[in-house]
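Note to self: user wants both folds in one dump. Writing first protein now.
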Amino acid sequence: MKRLIKEAIKTIQEHPEKFIYIDSKGKTVHLEDAAKKGTAVKPILVKTKAVEKLKEEGLDLSRADIRSDLYKLLDLLDVNGHHLQKDFSPKVYSKDEILDKWMDYTMDDENANAEEFAEEHHVGYQTLAKWIKEVKPR
């Protein structure tokens, strides 16, 4: 599917003139060449050609309901204006840094949630709980 979408994008980007011309055999020809040879051509919107390629593979973007569903899906996946979250490299903290942050976190909020804290700082909850036990006085 990714290849197909890339091909559709490439088709549209390669033709800034917005139209491609098809001869009677269905082959794409340049308008100047067709004029020199006297060949009859049919103009087709580049976007239409891209949509047809997608339709052949089962993604019919000419149907409003499919486009609507696709927009809805992309909106549901939308995070801060980006449809899909890019891979990110979480900041890596040492054990001591995590525990310092935890202590600050618990000082600010008596009902601090270790699970939420662990998730926010990209450390496993069980690991955080173990580290907290290690530093708590008995």
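First done. Writing the second protein, which came from a different request thread.
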Amino acid sequence: MCVALYPPPEVGGFTAIGDKDSNTTFIIPIDVSLMFGVPLLAFGLLFTLLSDIDNALTIASAVIAAIYLGLGSFFVLKDKNNANQNRYTPLIEGMLALGFGFLALMIAIAFDAEWTACGWAIQGLALVWFGRQSLRGWTVLLGILLQGLALAILQPLFDYYTALAPSTLSLTISAMGCLASVFILRNENNPIQPDYEVPAKEKHLLASVNTTSPIFQLIWSNSFVDMLTVVSMIWGLIVTVLIIDDHMGNWIDSLTRMITFALLINLIGYFVIDKYRQWNLVTTISHAFLGLFYLALLTTVSFHFEYDDATTSSFWPLFITLVVGWLLVGQLWIKRWYYADKATNFDTVTWLMTGTLLIAQFSYYLLPHSSQVMTVFITGIWLIALTQLCLRKKLNTPPWFNW
């Protein structure tokens, strides 16, 4: 720090950190073993001295984290006022890494496993946001690793025989943190994408960053971000099912119905996000989510009538909600895919066939004394009428629905 703040005097027209006649300055070098070794050895000494005192290690970790985060913030501000904004980069990244590391350690010491995972998920999201704003690949990677550790900590808590299940709040924070992180890193917000419009305030920052470094290329590579997005969406779906089971388990007593309802909630959420902030990958993955929703909806009807006749009163309100979801959410996504040039021939086909199979199933189960004659009759009339109307082009359908 003394070398960085008070460089040595000139010797023969040169200094240790730059050329007298040049407008640029070299990056301040650091001794990695000295920067990271001293605080780690100091914390080891504090652990030995304070391990028998309640909350002493927590306070010590918080103090060390505050010191290094304060020093890192000081050099960030000093770097902005410097002509060469790369000068203090090693110091900034080293001190911020130590500060956030001791902050994560403080959370782990102070809380139990569940709330440690919750705190690390929030801290990981903050690191991803800060790393994206400052284009620091190591900061983003540290945030992703913290969120991965948070998910790993939560997994053993699902063993109902040894521990209580995680609370709804911790699960929600974990899922929302993961989704928010991949939203920040989405391809539309990728600084190295050819079609990305770099804001004016980010151009100078991007020019001063080494965009060819392996970490920077990994963090903002399409395949890496796509993998994180898929994992986050699957985790979000699992968390939604668990929350429904926790709060509505007495009303929705079938796993198939929970999954169907969770898929509908996720599809609505992703549609709202994509409507206001473009997210092409989610738009693409929603094809699979909507197909799973159709399949789960049809399976729900079959399982209900075949195996679960005792819960008719609780089944019908949920089923009506799901059918309305099929009708509205399905059409909204078809419209969204049409205008985003991501529509396929199977979108309208799967939507229509789901409706046809629903009609057939209800004709079969609600008219049991017809010996399946009315099932064939009603479904056949529906298909013939639909085909005739389409062939004669009597249906005034919107352009996004390919009848």
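Dump finished. Worth passing along: The two ends are 70 Å apart (CA to CA).
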